[in-house]
Amino acid sequence: QVQLAESGGDSVQAGGSLRLSCSYTSHMYCFGWFRQTPEKEREGVANINSDGTATYANSVKGRFTISQDTSKNTLYLQMDSLKPEDTAMYYCAADSSCGSWYAPDRYTYTSRWGQGTLVTVSS
Q1: Which residues of the chain are modeled with pLDDT < 70?
Q2: In what side-by-side order are the strands of the sheet with 64-69?
Q3: pLDDT reported for residue 116
Q4: Cα–Cα distance measured from residue 30 to residue 41, given in angstroms and rounded to the nearest whole number
Q5: In contact, 73 and 8? CB cutoff 8 Å
Q6: Which residues pair with residue 116 across a beta bridge?
Q7: DSSP states along the chain
Q8: How far, rounded to the nearest angstrom, does the alpha carbon of residue 65 sit from its chain's CA centroid?
Q9: Taking Cα atoms as reference points, which of 16, 22, 24 lies closest to residue 79?
Q10: CA-to-CA distance for 100 and 14, rounded, in angstroms?
Q11: Which residue in 28, 72, 85, 117 has its CB near the most CB atoms, within 10 A?
Q12: What is the pLDDT of residue 99?
């Protein structure tokens, strides 16, 4: 089974940048990120498939960049122009499909998860 481990969460001021990393033990077709706050369900943020095609939630498009170094078995999420509303626990995820990544219930059938890393953005 694929195991995932995130790192890179921190506290930053609005407008700042962070890069999250996720190391994984073996490949799957789709890797990506979700985030969750106490007030909201877990939501899709970005994904990338084995062809290198990346997609993003509308709320982060133009500010976040997902990438993958397959030689290091590592997934990244570069987060720029951070806003207080980006504050959340960020989870690395993997699945056999990238379909419906941004659907409200997608997290309920996503197969692999990391333990999460906390991002706090202050105004």
Answers
A1: none
A2: 4-7, 18-24, 74-79, 64-69
A3: 98
A4: 21
A5: no
A6: none
A7: ---EEEE---EEETT--EEEEEEESS--SEEEEEEEETTEEEEEEEEEETT--EEE-TTTTTTEEEEEETTTTEEEEEE-S--GGG-EEEEEEEES--TTTTSTTGGGG--EE---EEEEEE-
A8: 10
A9: 16
A10: 30
A11: 117
A12: 95
**What is the C-alpha to C-alpha distance for residues 27 and 77, in angstroms, rounded to an integer?**
17
Q: One-letter amino acid identity for 40? A: K
pLDDT for res 64: 98
pLDDT score at 9: 98
Taking the alpha carbons of 12, 17, 48, 114 in that order, is the dihedral positive or negative? negative
Residue 19 CA to chain centroid, in angstroms? 10
Q: How far apart are CA 106 and CA 84, in angstroms?
A: 24
Please state, in angstroms and as integers, the Cα–Cα distance from residue 93 to each residue in 51, 75, 81, 104, following that order: 17, 10, 23, 15
- Measure the CA–CA gap between 19 and 104, rounded to whole angstroms: 25
CB atoms within 10 A of CB 73: 14
